[in-house]
Write a structure and sequence with these properties.
Layout: H1 28-63, E1 68-70, H2 73-105, H3 110-134, E2 138-140, H4 144-167
Antiparallel strand pairs: 1-2
Helix pairs in contact: 1-2, 2-3, 3-4
């Protein structure tokens, strides 16, 4: 069929179904609804991440009662707030090393996977060490919590990666 012989399908408002509606084409109520929905989804995601980090911090403190001392519950919430910036700093510091090592070893294969695990372990270790050292009200006497959390994270990552490759 030729293009000019195609039937004209338009919606009641005169738009064809293939037209993309831009932000400018939305009414005030639709823009408000989209903004509220986006903010709601963002808050729910932030809340879920915050709850997960709270559980990790509380579990770490409970697992090492003589090693980690808290001045109060406020220190726990500070630790949760500091977790994301500390993870960002540790990722930014270790990313160039990861890229350099992967490029040196040829990009893919078992060596690159080992590099990913090693850099992931160091990233988690550095993140936990930064949180423990930089959070007001948290006093640590050892870096064993950071070693244990990093090792647990590496084991979980290896298990998830193995499961992901088994599914494909």
């Amino acid at each position: 069929m030729r293009d000019d012989a195609m039937p004209d399908s338009t919606t009641p408002d005169g738009e064809t179904p293939d037209d993309d509606v831009s932000w400018d084409g939305l009414g005030r109520g639709q823009k408000t609804l989209a903004a509220v929905a986006g903010a709601g989804v963002g808050l729910m995601a932030a809340g879920a991440v915050g709850m997960f980090l709270l559980i990790v911090v509380l579990a770490t403190v409970a697992a090492f009662p003589g090693v980690i001392e808290l001045d109060g519950m406020g220190a726990v919430f500070w630790a949760v707030l500091f977790a994301a910036p500390c993870a960002l700093v540790s990722s930014a510091v270790l990313f160039p090393f990861r890229v350099l090592l992967r490029n040196t070893l040829g990009g893919e294969g078992p060596r690159a996977t080992a590099v990913d695990y090693a850099v992931g372990w160091f990233r988690t270790f550095l993140t936990v060490a930064l949180v423990l050292e930089c959070t007001p009200g948290v006093h640590t006497h050892s870096l064993w919590p950071a070693v244990c959390v990093a090792t647990l994270d590496a084991l979980l990552e290896a298990g998830l990666r193995r499961r992901r490759t088994a599914d494909h």
